[in-house]
Amino acid sequence: MEISLKASFVFYAVAMAATLIGFLFSMPGKFRYSIFALFAGFLSSTYHIGARWYIAGRAPLSNQYESMVFLVWAFVGAYLLFWHFSAVEKAGKGHKHAAVPGRAIEWLAPWTALVAVLSLGGASFLESDISPLVPALQSNWLLIHVSTVMTGYGALLLSFLGAAVYSFMGKSKHDEKKISLESLVYRACLVGFWLLTLGIITGAVWANSAWGSYWSWDPKETWSLITWLYYAVAIHLRRTKGWKDKKFAGLMLWGFVLVMFTYFGVNYLMSGLHSYGRS
Amino acid sequence: MKLIKPLSSIKFFFVLSGLMLAAFIIGGVVPQGESHQAYQEMFGPIGGNWVVYLRFNNVFSSFWFLALMAGGFLNMLACTVRQWKVLKLRPGVFLSHLGIMLMFVGGAVHGIFSVRGTLALETGQTESEFAGDAGTPVAMPFSVQLKDFNIVYYDQEKHFIHALKKREDPGHEGGEDLLESVEVQPGTEAHFKSEAADITVLKFYPSFTIGDAGPVSLSEDRENPALAVKIAGSKAAKPSYLFANHPDFHGVSDTGGVRYVYEYRPGRVKQFESRLAFLEDGVEKFEKLINVNSPASFKGYRLYQSGYDPKNLSFSSIQISKDPSVIFIYSGFAALMLGLTMAFWKEMK
Predict the structure, then answer these.
(1) Whole-angstrom Cα distance, residue B112 to residue B208?
(2) pLDDT at B176 (0 to 100)
């Protein structure tokens, strides 16, 4: 089973190397090889998660290691979905409107691979033993709640990555790729925010069914709400005050700092109802 | 009507959101619900006093936080009233705002009408009131009896005795070889195939101590697990004691230089569950087995398995709540999700 995760790591590393070699030798279609490698890594991670699920007899989402592997899987999956739909849109609609992400998303392929490699490398330092669930986690809500939150984090990570690349691009405002990348940043933010909302709601419903209280102001809940409100304000700033381009990219960069603190910081620095997540 | 314009303004929304973010961060960083003294230790005498004075110790029930929440509700309500013509054309935005307003209403209903507390029951005990979170007893329109409490394990606890013998290697002093390990049960005899003597396990002490009448267990909690054993061939008339937390205490036996070490492996709890009977006027209406994630409901009250006492395995701690706000909150959740889906779907296309 672990070999499948190592294979993912190698595929993601190959995705990075493919772009690098493509640039060095000015190869056409350099991103295509990266995306193929990313897809292979995603399939390999899918097998890993499925096998772990089968062996454990439960969804592999009960500790930091499992959630991190799932997060990387969701992040790469979100990237591939955006890539797929951008291709479909472009093929179907031509260049009717500049908001279509188009092939600018391909620029993110090596960066997506880099984040995946670093994250899986980090996950390898965590405790990876399969252990039985504590009573509080024995619920179908575990799958629904954690998977929606992690997929939301994956989409917000994609928005962050797009924002980071956008921030370092040149000044030309009419560059089609730049405009389409900006649109991708916003779309990924919307998807991430929608999933984060669903994740917080499913967590509240689960808490109510397990403890009789849908909200306890536990540190994880509080920081999730901080993150949620931040992204809600960012979306309102864009829609009502026209904060686009670099301003919105800046909001996405800072927003992901909150996501990371909610995910890692709270687990390691604060104790509460979600403390089992750190093990 | 003059008030509607400033109340509904987007500027007011951003100001409120900034204040709410600040409040959440304060509540997320400053430990909540600690004693005054604890804050003085954390932030110094003056800082601790300010934390308590500004209610940073209980942010989420402070007057200023509740005022912020009320402001948020008014902002959304005023925005909905003022922008009604626009919102009619954007049902997604309207529904998501409605969802959040319903949650604000739910929060208010929760604060005013919800009842919550703990029911502490021993097996066989019947209670018709519970200890509310404020510390006062709350009467229920029925009685609850704990018929049985049970802990289910993935693996039951296990006891092992390891037989060790000093290594007969002149070049290495102090080392021991493991001769054999045997799983034992209290009240049975353990047979070793090696040169180690057979052992009869007389008794298990979960929390060993010496009382007036000799060795006793303080409680059922596994704080100091020990076994009283009789080693075959030993000249000692009294039992020997092996301690899991102090493997060197027993020393080498007098039956051939073998040292016996006791290892206690705790069981892994899978679930803990209480069988409850619900009674009205002394008549049992129904019985329900509750466990974590599977509560019982009766007459608007919900009972949740929340804990147990490892020192007293006939005790069960049950959370009880009656919360009429849940319908508002869940309706708010549904409206918010539906609204966001509609609003975002339009933008994603």
Answers:
(1) 49
(2) 81
What confidence score (pLDDT) does residue B238 get?
Answer: 82
pLDDT band with cut points at 50, 70 and 90 for residue B178:
confident
H or E segment and range at residue B322: strand B312-322
Amino acid at B297: S
Of B268, B321, B329, the CB nearest to A212: B321
Instruction: Give the model confidence (pLDDT) of A42-96 as tens digits.
Output: 999 999 999 999 999 999 999 999 999 999 999 999 999 999 888 766 655 544 4
pLDDT digits (tens, 9 = 90+) for B237-246: 788 899 999 8
Which of A132, A193, A212 is opposite residue B319, by nearest beta carbon? A212
Residue with tokens 């009233």: B81
**Ranges of chain A whose pLDDT falls below 50:** 94-102
Contact A139 B116 (CB under 8 A): no
Which phi and psi (to 5°) does residue A109 adopt? -55, -55
Which helix (H) or strand (E) segment is A64 a member of? helix A64-93
CB B267, CB B155: distance < 8 Å: yes
Residue with tokens 């009419």: A174
Instruction: Please name the member of B24, B270, B348 whose beta carbon is closest to the beta carbon of A132.
Output: B270
Question: In this structure, are strands B312-322 and B158-166 parallel, antiparallel, or unpaired?
Answer: unpaired
Contacts of B291 in chain A (CB under 8 A): 135
Q: Is A191 on the interface with B (CB under 8 A)?
A: yes
**Chain A residue with the nearest C-alpha to that of B29:** A219
- Counting beta carbons within 10 angstroms of the beta carbon of residue B286, is it exposed (0 to 12), middle (13 to 18) or buried (19 or more)? exposed
Q: Which residues of A touch B336 (CB under 8 A)?
A: 197, 201
For range B260-282, the mean pLDDT: 92
Please state, in angstroms and as integers, the Cα–Cα distance from residue A259 to each residue in A108, A188, A256, following that order: 20, 14, 5
Pull the structure tokens for residue B285. 């209406």
**Cβ pair A212:B302 closer than 8 A:** yes
Chain B residues 2-21 with a CB less than 8 Å from chain A: 10, 13-14, 17-18, 20-21
Query: B-chain residues within 8 Å CB-CB of A135?
Result: 269-272, 291-293
